[in-house]
From TrEMBL:
Fe-S metabolism associated domain boundaries: 16-134
Protein name (database record): SufE family protein
Lineage top rank: taxon: Bacteria
Species per Swiss-Prot/TrEMBL record: Hanamia caeni
Family as reported in the entry's similarity comment: Belongs to the SufE family.
Pfam families in the record: SufE (PF02657)
Length: 145
């Protein structure tokens, strides 16, 4: 999916993409487009245990640990949230647990995301990040045993 690009490089790609837009209306449209391009999540993963707690919308997140790297898949019933989770997946998927746990995710502030999201959406974004990192923590402990 992401080849050999680092988390930082992927963050920079997103920051550059967002710099092409003049208004937040255009940026929201772009986020929605990202969500539309997110690979659909198989219905078998849309179960209560995969729902991220703390999100106003329903967000399902699942992961797979393969060859020392974590691969995430997600979906949401809200288009903007689907776009947000797609950005997180683009940046964090296909990395080791340590790389994910150490990711600063500066791009979120660099593109002004936290200041332009409603409080409930900001809290949801933080919940998504927390759950992604929780998966990384769990896989790290499994891998070290």
């Amino acid at each position: 999916m992401n080849g050999n690009t680092s988390i930082k490089e992927r963050e920079e790609e997103i920051t550059e993409e967002f710099s092409l837009f003049d208004s937040w209306e255009e940026k929201y449209e772009y986020i929605i487009d990202l969500g539309k391009n997110l690979e659909p999540l198989d219905e078998k993963y849309k179960v209560p245990e995969n729902i991220i707690k703390g999100c106003q919308s329903t967000v399902w997140l699942t992961s797979e640990f393969k060859d020392g790297k974590i691969f995430y898949k997600a979906d949401s019933d809200a288009v903007i949230v689907k776009g947000l989770i797609s950005m997180l997946i683009k940046v964090l998927s296909d990395n080791t647990p340590d790389e994910i746990l150490n990711a600063k995710l500066d791009f979120i502030n660099d593109i002004g995301m936290m200041t332009h999201l409603a409080q409930t959406r900001s809290n949801g974004l933080l919940s998504m990040i927390k759950q992604i990192k929780n998966y990384a923590l769990a896989y790290k402990s499994v891998a070290s045993n």
